[in-house]
Please model this.
Amino acid sequence: MFLLQLTIVLVALYVGSRYGSLALGAISGIALALLVLGFGLKPGNPPTDVIYIIVAAVTCAGMMHASGGMDWLIQIAERLLRRHPGHITFFAPLCTFFLTVLVGTGHVVYTLMPIICDIALRKGIRPERPCGVASIASQVGITCSPIAAAVVAFATISAANGFDITIPRILMVTLPASVIGLLAASACSYKRGLDLDKDPQFQARLRNPETYQYMYGNEATLLDREIPASARRAVYIFLGAIALIVVYASCQSLLPTYSQVVAVNGATGTWNGLTAAQLVQLGIVREGLTQVVEQPLKMNIVIQVVMLVAAALIVIFCKASPKKAVAGAVWQSGMVAVVAIYGIAWMADTLFSNYMGDIQQLLSSVVHDYPWSIAFVFFAVSMLINSQGAVVVSMLPLAYSLGIPGEVLLGVFPSVYGYFFIPNYPSDIATVNFDRSGTTVIGKYLLNHSFMMPGLVSVGVATLISMLLARLLY
Model:
């Protein structure tokens, strides 16, 4: 019965990935309905805390985008790339990576990618070299962003499972590991493929006047766009909000505290701000059975509050149009992620929670001897669901239930990015279309595409370095 139900879940993920976008979460709802209404499984819990954080963060990033702040960030990146065109294979992925780290979504690559292609082509560098690794870098940055769903979910779920890890400590591991992985992928891409003057297919395209005009006729740039002062203010507000979140996460003693009743069995409950003396007087607290403790405000609440306040400030002081924000790519991609995580994680939690004992018995010996092997599970699931946040929300609770230590899971965190393997992700498809030279391709046999090598090198090296750093820190 479990195998049948697991097959239903996998089929839903496969079909949803074929349709993409909102369909991934919606089609997961079909599998959820079959599990609950058809097979009578007890429904799991949707990841509401993570969803609320995504909504708040995406609202803030969308407002910054609507104010023109994103264009200013892209201009800064373009100036760097045009100053050093000969090293674009290294600088382009670093630019897309840090843009994702700042904004929390990899879809910012759509504006910068045509510029990367144009600079490489005019410098005589095979555009596949910087474009392939830059597209990979835009997704790698998700595990290094303090407002990305995957990072927030990792911290929230880890805290609930006894591994007290803050967002800054996560980034202390993933950020250097990911940069090293990207530099390794860039080095492997530096001389990848034939130079343009030796590529017979490219030379044949050059001899066609219409194709030549298509490749070299127009220059992609944002440097001629005037950026208003309000856009710069929006970026400062956004970055200030991120900095404030990092400060609170690093120094939680700064957060306000509230009284919480902790029972002997570990259950907790809040009591509307009543003092300890009032609780004793009312008979709620009994000596030896319960106690009152002071708990700091949870970071998931802090992130939501700070992001919403920053979004409001951008609207008030930076002339950001809410209608433009809703119509923008940043806000829309974030809402798609919300639906995907909602459907996928709820479906997965329903299946796994009902068979947890059997799964633990089946996998306990493997994860006991080779706990790092859970990285292959994360990677494989990511290939199916195209969302790092959804992988964390759906699979991390299972990993903790199997007894895998938190430091091991932090070490394999970069392995939640595997959806480059099958080249159907929007950023990869867009990169192929942006490359006017035709060197960035999806191969005849599907898997021999321009993103496979940099993806495997980047994720593989980042995971190894992350495991080493996590072991040193813990």
